[in-house]
């Protein structure tokens, strides 16, 4: 089964397009978990327990795990998410010359429970740098197209001699690179006009849309244009996993010994699911 077929099944099962971002900033992990063997894993496990029934996917960002304990926390997290039947997108933004990209591509293996099912990649080095990912039929490959950060326009909006913007060229190439039906685009919710335009340009590619929640992106556009035949996901990371920080009555869950922070995350995931479902 392809990654996007699996994702479609999960979306239907939980009636949700919410992707929960697992970015466990160590400085924001509740005090009572900080002396655990692997605090990031202890944190993520509680977040997954509280959010999985609203999660179409989880998206750990590799930046929060790139140290020896971090990789252990990440692999435990991925296996646990799989135990709840939730696909995992590793936000790693990788790509390199073919010889190196072949090693990066081992980060994703749908047959291995500790390994992610999909990955984000960077198109800057061109087709050969993505080939080892594209050749794996069973995985999802989300290519950075129009990112959500303020500087996303610096290069991605530049107009080429052909009249296309760089991000439009990326989308056109991704359509060509999608021979195995495993390619999607990363398009930020902070660029709603571009999402709409891209949906028209590449109707068959599912989008991973970050930028709702903490970055203030457009949730309606994210859903209306992010999905292809109902498949695609809208990510929120800090807005869900640190939702308890906003709730003064729940501060005890963060500063004290309770797991109320996870309950707040579960409620935030449910709220986002309901909000996004209004536009599906
Ligand atoms: O264009 C992009 C690509 C990736 N991201 C990543 O998504 C999450 C967003 O986190 P929030 O806390 O919901 O803002 C994070 O891992 C980013 O690195 C993105 O935001 N924009």
Automatic annotation (TrEMBL):
Gene3D superfamilies (UniProt xref): Aldolase class I
GO biological process, one term: 'de novo' pyrimidine nucleobase biosynthetic process
Enzyme class: lyase
CDD domains: OMP_decarboxylase_like (cd04725)
Alphabetized SUPFAM superfamilies for the sequence: Ribulose-phoshate binding barrel (SSF51366)
GO MF terms held by the record: orotidine-5'-phosphate decarboxylase activity
Keywords: Decarboxylase, Lyase, Pyrimidine biosynthesis
Active site: 93
Catalytic activity: orotidine 5'-phosphate + H(+) = UMP + CO2
Orotidine 5'-phosphate decarboxylase domain boundaries: 17-251
Pfam families to which the protein is assigned, alphabetical: OMPdecase
Annotated EC: 4.1.1.23
Known pathway: Pyrimidine metabolism; UMP biosynthesis via de novo pathway; UMP from orotate: step 2/2
UniProt xrefs under InterPro entries: Aldolase_TIM, OMPdecase_AS, OMPdecase_type-2, OMPdeCOase_dom, RibuloseP-bd_barrel
Family stated for the protein in its record: Belongs to the OMP decarboxylase family. Type 2 subfamily.
Protein's UniProt name: Orotidine 5'-phosphate decarboxylase
Naturally occurring in which organism (per UniProt): Halalkalicoccus paucihalophilus
